Batch of 2 targets.
Target 1
Amino acid sequence: MLKQDANLLQGTLDMLILKALSLGPLHGFGVGQRIMQMSEDALRVEEGSLYPALYRIEQRGWITSEWGVSDNNQRAKFYRLTRAGRRQLQIEGESWERLAAAVFKVMQTT
Amino acid sequence: MYGLRLLRARLRGLLRKKTVEREMEEELRFHVRMRAEENARHGMTPEEAERAALRSFGRWARVKEACRDVKGGGALETLWQDLKFGARTLRKHTGFTAVAVLTLALGIGANTAIFSVIQSVLLRPLPFPEQERLVVAWKKDMTSGNPLVELSFPEVRDWQARSQSFTSLAAMPTTVYGYGYVLTGRGEPVQLESAKVTGRFFSVLGARAALGRVLDESDDRVNGAGVVVLSDRLWRERFEADPGVVGRTITLNQTGFTVVGVMPAGFTFPQGVDLWVPLQATMNPRGLENRGAVYLQAVGRLKPGVTLAQAEAELNTIIAGLAEQFPETQAAGQRVVLTPLTDYVFGDAKLALWALFAATALLLLVAAANVANLSLARATSRRRELAVRVALGASRGRVALQLFVESLLLAACGGAAGVMLAYWLVDLLVAIAPGDIPRLEDVRLSGAALLASLVCTLASVLIFGLLPAVSASRFNLSEALTEAGGKLTGAGAGSKLRRALVVSEIALTVILLVGAMLVLRSFINLSRVPLGFDPRGVLTMQLRLTGAKYGTVEARREFFRQLVERVEAQPGVVAASGVLTRPLEGVVGWDQDFAIEGQPQSEARNNPNANYETINPHYFRTFGIPLKAGREFDMQDKQGGVPVVIVSETLAARFFGSADRAVGKRLKFDPSNQDEPWRLIVGVAGDVRYRELQGTRLDVYAPHAQSTPNLNHFAVRTTLDKAGALALVRREVSALDPQLAVSGVATMDEILALRLSRPRFSAALLNWLAVTATLLAAVGIFGVMAFAVAQRTRELGLRVALGAQPADVMKLVLGQGMKMAGLGLLIGVVGAVSLTRWLTSLLYGVSATDPLTLAFVALLLTLVALLACYLPARRAAKVDPLIALRYE
C-alpha cells in the first residue's frame, strides 16, 4: 500500500516539475519557487524530494540540465524540458484531469 | 532506450563518483544560498536566514543520501559493494575459502583437462567428408567363433560387383604389419610401413592429396608401374618438404617407385603408415587371385540413406552365394561385420576415455556438493548476522543477492584455479597417456573445453550459491533470532539439505570407487597373467629381408642361419632366433588351420585355427618358453628331412589328452591342400600369450628350415643391457648385409609395458580421481558432523547434565553420522551395480558386479566415515555442561 502511495505522490511531483519547467528553463530552487507561486503558496516542495525527483526525471530523459549563471550572477544548474518531457507532461496532465474529475464526481455524490 | 540511458547514468555515478558528488554538492549549496537570500528578503538577519535555510533544507546528509540513491551507481553500486564485501568475507574465512576453491579447482580442472583430451581425440571429426557413412568390413566365423575373418582380393571384388549398398568399396590389408618397405638413398636405410590399397581407397574416404595426386583406379594394374603416395611426416623428415618430390623416383626395397603425391598432415589412415601403394601392382599375381589368401578388409562408403544393418544383410546374402559357388575356399556359416570407421579408428580408447570422463563428472558433482555443503553450513552459522541485517532493513532478496554474489566470487576463483590446473593436467595427461591413442599429439586445451568448464563453474554456482541463498532468505526472522540464543534443535530445512548433500556425495564416491577398483583389479590381474615366456633379458626387433637377394626361401634361411650363428658366438649372448611374429605384437598373427592324423574330415573342419610361428632352433631358449615334453628343433630338422612340428600344451591336452601322449603323433597344416605333408610332433611347449594378454590360443611351431613364411622378427637373449645387445645385433646384421634396416627395437619388458599401458593409464587416473572424491567426501562428512555438534552443544550439555555418559554422547553423534554414511553407501552400491556394466569390456578377470570389490569399497568408506565422524564425536563427548549451557 505504502509503495503505491509513494508512486502516486512521486508521479504527481514529477508532473508538477514538468509543468513548472514547461514555462521555461529554471534552476532547482526556481522550480520549487515556481510551484509555490503557481499553487498560490499552497504547495511547498521539500528539497529532500525535489532534487531526487529532478535527477530521476533527468535520467528518464524528460528534462536536461546544464550549468549556467543565475539572476544574481551565481553558477547554477538549469533544467529544461525536452520534447519527450513535453509529451509526458501532456499525457500526465490528461490522466490527472480524468482522475481529478472522477474523484470530484465521487465526492459530489451524497 | 530508457534502460540504456539509465545504465549510462548509473555507470557514470559509479565510475565518476567524485565528479557527480561534487556537482550535486554545488547544486545543493546554491539552493541553500538562494534560500538564505529569500529569507533575508523576508527580513531575517543574514545569520538567521542562513540557519533557517539550512533547517528548512533538512539534514544535509539525509537529502544527499536521497539524491545519491537516484544519482549514484544504484544497483551497480550495490553489486560492487556486495563484491567488495564478499571478497572481504572470503578473505576473513581463509580455511573455508581455501577448501572451497581447492575443491572446485580439482573438480573443474580435472573435468576440463579430460574433456580437452576427449574433444581432441574423439569428438573432432576425422578428416573425411561425411565420415558417418564410412564403414570397415570383414567377416566373423560363427562355427569356430573367430571374430575376425579376413577377405581375399577376389571376394572384395565380388562384393564391389554385387552390392548395391555402397557408392564404392576399396580393399586394404587388416594390418599395416608385414607390408614394410626399406627406403634407401635418403640417409640411413629406414623401415617404413605401407598400406597396400586398391585405387578407390582415397575416393571412398574422400581424401585429396596435398601435392600431386592420390592413387586411383588407373593404378589398379597387376605388375603396374611402381607408384607411391607419401605421408606428410615422411615428406618433411626425409624429403625436406620439397614440393619437387612429385614425379621423382625413390628406392623402396631396392625397387624404383615414382612419387605421385603427398598427403596432407591430418591424413593418417591407417595409423602409423607412411606410404600408400597400389595393392594389385605390388602383390604376387597368383596370391592376389587366390580365394584362400585372406588378408584384406574392405572400406566402403554407404549410399545415402542405407543403414549399417541393411548393408550387412545384403553382404550376408552375397557371401552365402559365394560360399555355394566356391565351397573349397569360402566357408559357410560366416557373417559380415561392418564397423563404423570412427569406431574402427578409436576402438577401446573410446570407452576408456568416456569412462574417465564419467569419473571426472562424478568428481565434479562431489566437489560441487561439498562446496554447497560448506556454503550451506556457513550460511546457517551466519543466520544471526543475516537476521540482524534483515532486522535493520535489508530485504530478503538483498540478503540472498549478497550470498549469491559471494558464491559467484568463490566460483570465479575456483574456476580460474581450475583452468590453470587444467592447463597443467592436459600436459600431464598427454605425457603419461599411452602413445597408441590416436591423435593424442594434437591435444590442447580447447575452446569448447574451456566453455564446458565455464558451464561447470556456472552450474556449481547455481547449485551451491542458490541453495544457501534460498534457505538463508527463507528463514523466519524471530525464529532465527531466538534460535541464535537457544539452539535446541538442528537447523531444520538447511540441515536436511546438508544431510542430503552428504548422502549423495557418499553415493557418488561409492560409484567412482567401485569403478576405479574394478579397473585397478583388472590391471593387476592383467599384469600378473602367466605370459608363458620370460621377458627379462630378451631384446627383439623387426628385421625384414627385402630385395631380389632374398627372393628364394633358401637365401632367407641361409641369412638367418648365419645371423643366429654369428650372434650366438658373441660373449654375453645366451641364445638367438628369428620368429614370424614376436609375442604380444598385437592382434596380428598367422592363423593356421590344421588336422590331426586319424581325425575325421568333418571334425577337422571345426578345429579352431592355431597361432602359427616359424622359428629357428633356439627359439624356446631365447624366450624362456618351457618345453613340457619332447625336444626343441635342431639343425637336423631341415628341408628334406622328416617334417616336424612343436605344439602348445593346450593343443596337446585337447587333442591327445596330455603333452607326453602328443609326442610322436602327426598333424597336417592346411588340410585341404593335398601337397601338405603330415608333420611329426617332436615336442610340446608351454602356452604363450601371443596376440593379447587376455588369453592364450592354440600354438603350432614349425622350423624355418621346413617352412616358407618370412621371419619378421629377430630376438636375442643376452646378459647385456639393451644398448649393448642392440649394438651387437646391428653390427652382425650389417656385417651380413649393410642394406638391411633394423626397426621396432624393443625389449620384451618394454613390449609388455606397452601392452599394459592403456589399462595402467585408466587404472591410475580412475584411482586418482576416486581417492580425491573419497577425500572430498570425508571433508563433507566431517564438516557436517562438526557443524552439527557445534550447533547442538547446548543440547549435548543438557544431556550430560542429566546424566548421559561421554560414551552415550559419542554414540549419539557417531550414530547420526553413520546413518548418513549407510544411506549413501546403499544408494551408491545400487548405483554402482547398475552403472559398472558399461565397464565390462575394460575389465579382465573380475566381474562388473564383483562382490569383493563392492564389499571392500563399502568397508573403506565406512572406515573413512567413522574417522570423519570420530573427531566431532570426541569433541561432543568432551562437552562441559556448565560451559555448554552458558554457550552464547
Note: Helices of chain A lie at 2-21, 28-38, 47-60, 83-108.
Target 2
Amino acid sequence: MKTSPFRIFFNTGAWAVLAFLLLPLLVVIPISLTDTSYIGLPKEHLSLQHYENYFSSAEWLGATWTSIWIGVAVAIAATVLGTAFSIGCWLISSRASTIARWVLIVPILVPPVVQSLGFYRFWVKLDLIDTYFGVILAHTLLALPYVSISVFTALANLDRRITQAARSLGASVWQTVISVIIPAIRPGMLTGGIFAFIVSFDEIVGVLFLTVRTVNTLPKQIWEGIQESIDPTIAAVATFLVVLSLIATAAVSLRKKTA
Amino acid sequence: MPRLNDQIRYWMLVLPALAIMVIFYILPVLGIWEISFTEPATGFGNYVKMTESNAVKTSFILTFRVAAITTVGCLLLGYIVAYAISNFVSRLTPLMMALVLLPFWVSVLIRSFSWIILLGRSGLVNDTLRDIGLVTSPLRLMHNELGVLIAMIHVMLPFAVLPMLANMRGISRSYTDAARGLGASEWTAFRSVYFPQTLPGVFSGALLVFVLSLGFFVTPALLGGGRVLMISEYITYQIQEFLAWGLGSALSVALLVATALVLLIAARFVNLKSALLERN
C-alpha cells in the first residue's frame, strides 16, 4: 500500500479518535489506587484502601448484588418474552406483525425522563414503587427492544423452507419452534440476553424515579456518591466495571476472529 | 382451516410481550398527556405557562443546540473512524473495531464520572496544565456547555460509527478504483464518488445521535452541574423541586412531540426501518 497525505490523515485521525474513546475510560484506574481520601492521582504511594472500603461496605456490596440479580431476572424475562415475540412476528410476517415490531422498539426512542415519569404515575397506582418487582418490570420493558432486534436479526438469516419442511413432516407449531427455530437462533438469543442484562445493570433514570430506600442498585449508589461527595470508592467500582468491559470486549473480538 | 389455527398460534407467541408493552409502557406514557391537561386544573394552563416561560424557551433552544453540536461532532469524528476501519485493511482493524464497541459495555454513568475526574476544577486536565505551567488558575472545563458537549460526544460516538460502518461495508471498491483509473486524484475520487454513497449511513447515524441526545439526562445533569439545564433535567427539576407535575408533563409531551417530528422529517432522508428495526 502506498502512503499518501489522504491516507495518513484518515489513519492518524482514526487512531486519535479511538484514543479519545478509550483513554477517558482508563483514568479511573490510577484514581482508584490513590492514597488520598479525595479524587486525585496517587501522591506518595499506591494504595488499595478504596478497594478495601468497597469490600467492607455493606451498602456497596448490597447494591452490586441487587444490580446483578435484577439484571439476571430481566435478562431471563426479556429473552423469553422477546424471543417468543420475534418468532411469532417472523412466522406471521404481515403488515400487522411489522407494526407490532415497531411498537416493541418504542422504548429506544422515548426520552428516559419521559418514560420514567409515565412509569412513576402508573407504578404508584399499582403500588409497585420501591419494590424489586417494579424495577424488574420497568427494566424488562426497556430491554425488550434490544432482545427483539437481535433475535429478529438471527431469524432473518434463517431459511423459511426449513420450518416449512418441519411442518410438512408433521411437526406441530410448538415442536417447530422448540426443536427447529430456537436451536438455530441461539446466538441471537444470547446476544439479546446479554444486552438485556447490560440495559438493566446500567439503568439509572428509571431507578431514581421508581425507588426510595428499599431497592438500591449499583448505578443509584454511584449516582448518589457523585452527587454527595466524590469519593474514590466510586473509582474503585468504576475500575472493576471498566476492566470487566475490557475483558468482555477482548473475549468477543477473539471469538469473532476464531469463528 | 389449519392455516387459520396456525395464525392464532403465531399471535399467541407475539401477544405476551406486546400486551405487557402496551399496558405497562405505552399507556403510562400516553397517561402523561392526560396529566398535562388535568393538573393542577383542567385545560391548556400548563401549555400556556410553558409557551410564556423564558426559562422553558432557553432550555429548549439549549437542548436543540447541544444535540445538534453533538451530532455534528460525532459525525465528523465517527466518519474518520468508520472510513479507516472499512477501507484500510490491516492487522489492527479488529482492534479498532473492538475500541469502537468497548464503550457500549461501560455505563454512561461511569463514562460521565470519568469526565468529571478529567475536567473538574482540580481535575486531571487542569492539574496537568498547571503543573507544566500553561495556566495559573484552573480553566472552567466543566459545569458549562463545553464540558457537557465533550462528554456527550464521547458517549454518543459509537452510535454514529456503527450505522456508517454498516453502510461503508456495502460499498464496492470498484467505483473509487474506476474514478482513480480515469485520473481523479485520491481526494476527488473520495469527494465525488465515495462520499455520496456513504450519505445514507451518515443520515442514519445523525438521526440516532440527534434523537438520543434530545432526551439525554445523565451526562448533562452530571457535567452541567445544574448550569446546563437541558429539557430532561428541566422536567425532573420541575417535578422534584416544585412538584409541578402538570408543567413537567406538558414539557414531556413537548419533548415527545419534538422527537416524533425529528423522526418524521428524518423519514424523508433515512430508511427508518433499516436504521431502527434492523440494526444490529
Note: Chain B has a mean pLDDT of 91.
